[in-house]
Amino acid sequence: MSAAVNASEIAAARDRLDQVRQEVARVYVGSVRPIDALIMAMLARGHALLEGVPGVAKTTLVKAFAAALGCTVRRIQFTPDLLPADITGTYVLSPREGTFALRAGPVFANVLLADEINRAPAKTQSALLEAMQERQVTIEGDRYELPSPFLVLATQNPIDLEGTYPLPEAQIDRFLVRVAVTYPSAREEAQMLKTHGVTSPSSQAVLDPRDVVQLQALASSVTIEDDLLAYAVAITHFTRVHVRVALGTSPRATLGLIQAAKAFALMSGRPFVAPDDIRAVASSVLAHRIVLIAEAEAEPGARERVVEDALTRVGYRRGVRAV
Hints:
By secondary structure, this protein is an alpha/beta fold. It has two domains: 1-196, Rossmann fold (3-Layer(aba) Sandwich), CATH 3.40.50.300; 222-318, Magnesium chelatase subunit I, C-Terminal domain (Helicase, Ruva Protein, domain 3, Orthogonal Bundle), CATH 1.10.8.80. 46% of the residues lie in helices and 15% in strands. It is built from 14 helices and eleven strands. The chain has helices at residues 3-27, 33-43, 58-69, 85-88, 122-125, 129-134, 169-172, 186-196, 209-220, 226-241, 251-267, 275-286, 294-297, 302-313; strands at residues 48-51, 73-77, 89-94, 99-104, 111-115, 136-139, 142-145, 151-156, 177-180, 245-247, 291-292. The longest helix is centred in the first third of the chain and has 25 residues, at 3-27. The chain starts with a helix and ends in a 10-residue tail after the last helix.
């Protein structure tokens, strides 16, 4: 594939992504950053964890984004009595035929909205681990592939502790990005009242599953030099030796950092990754995976400051290019 064709495809992809952004913004009134984070997760074949206080339109954002992708969407309202089979599905006896047939759970969809995921116990949350990592589920020993694309968009409330269960580190590590959904500005809140005052708008599909898969393939083909791979490794390694960190980011986080940087480059209209792409996505990809020591755990923004330290103290050194 020539550089000219690459540039043309990148430009066309950026236009399609702009359409998605604009369509979601018709419904979700607020900062564009959460929308861009979801687009980045989609391009990188990752999953997103949306965190914010009640009433800041986390679910509205996810539903509008999923509708704009034109993919099948299923929603699970996580509760303490939710069972793993309620997510993956189970075999049900058919009285007429006398045989068992699979009743597929909501996980068999392109986009799975896991609403208030931290309200279910760890046993139920773990039902998503195989699906999120391997795009498959195992039911009664039988393996079933999930549709492509497959994206988990989960929401959780960071301040309501009653009746909630903290997400296990193994599950948090499978979310590519953590998206902070904050309060809108006064101007945005006034615009929200106008937009949703009479009849709430709904977003229309501007892509379809085939388009999403093609965009994901294009993002994975974005060029990245070896010195940038070394730079990403150095950043994640720094989080493992930081004095305020009990458990640093995993190699899966390093891989996610590269995938997210490629997606960010595509969104910026470039067929190659630049150092600023890695810096731009580092906090959203790495911070939520860090486990702090007890003394730092209660400090707001402590995880983000660890990533900021890494970006400040780990320098990027461009490798020598052969002529």
